[in-house]
Amino acid sequence: MPAEEGKSQTMKKALATTIRNAGFEDAGAIYTLIKEHPREVVPRAISDIVQNIDRFLVCEERGRIIGTAAWQILPEIGKALNPSVEIKSVSIGGHYQHRGIGSALVKAVIKRIERFHPAQIVVLTFTPEFFRQFGFHEVAKETLMHKLYMGCINCTKYDSPFTCPEVAMVRKCRMQNAES
Ligand SMILES: CC(C)(COP(=O)(O)OP(=O)(O)OC[C@H]1O[C@@H](n2cnc3c(N)ncnc32)[C@H](O)[C@@H]1OP(=O)(O)O)[C@@H](O)C(=O)NCCC(=O)NCCS
């Protein structure tokens, strides 16, 4: 059984709560959860969620999807010299916040991403304090130009990613180098 499945020990009062890979049947619930947080989380079309369903984890409690988190591999030119994976779409339902579910999901996503041996995990967030607990530290947005070109370039909320109040953060990983 994959590590992210099964009952998470880190949740505070989450009896019968499971973190698992998402399936197509979860797409509608994921869409609704993301839409609940339009200020903090970039909205995603349901077709985008369906097409990327293999990059979502969900938290389920008694048959209800109460949290989600996703990831996206950022582009590299040529060989993957500094492979970066972005954590995105982290959304916990309003009634279910502050129960350890966000922490459990982010830890599970990190574990999942680390299987690919990235050099770093990236997040753009309004809640840097939350992500600091998992080893993320603030970096200048200019160091994440591939992220800015992938997503921020199409943002309609701010005229430039550099005026957007979201904080760029990175968690360095131990990268395995096949050529060393
Ligand atoms: C931010 C969010 C993911 C946290 O999930 P959660 O399940 O509520 O968080 P947890 O219970 O695991 O929090 C553990 C600790 O993280 C910190 N924390 C949680 N939410 C926080 C926030 N919004 N700001 C700063 N720190 C926060 C607190 O120290 C918290 O401990 P406490 O509950 O004893 O105060 C969730 O509140 C959410 O979905 N918010 C709206 C969307 C969002 O901001 N997503 C992140 C986009 S990058």
What does this 3D model show about the protein?
Strands 1-2-3-4-5-7-6 form a seven-stranded mixed sheet, sandwiched between helices. The model is unreliable at 1-7 (pLDDT under 50). The longest helix has 14 residues, at 101-114. By secondary structure, the protein is an alpha+beta fold. The protein has helices at residues 27-35, 46-51, 101-114, 128-132, 145-150, and strands spanning 17-21, 56-61, 64-73, 84-92, 120-125, 137-138, 167-172. The two termini are 32 Å apart. The chain has one domain: Aminopeptidase (3-Layer(aba) Sandwich). Helix 3 links the parallel strand 4 (84-92) and strand 5. The structure holds coenzyme A.
Task: Describe what is shown at a glance.
This protein is an alpha+beta fold and 180 residues long.
Helical run tally: 5
Q: Tell me the CATH architecture.
A: 3-Layer(aba) Sandwich
Shape: globular
Provide the CATH topology.
Answer: Aminopeptidase
Q: How far apart lie the N and C ends?
A: 32 Å
- CATH superfamily caption: Gcn5-related N-acetyltransferase (GNAT)
Radius of gyration: 16 Å
Please summarize the sheet with the most strands: 7 strands, mixed
Strand order of the largest sheet: 1-2-3-4-5-7-6
Total beta-strand segments: 7
Question: From N to C, what is the helix and strand string?
Answer: EHHEEEHEHEHE
Total domain modules: 1
Strand residues, percent: 15-25%
What would CATH call the class? Alpha Beta
Mean pLDDT: 89
Helix content: 10-25%
Structural class designation: alpha+beta
Low-confidence stretches: 1-7
What ligand molecules are bound, each kind once? coenzyme A
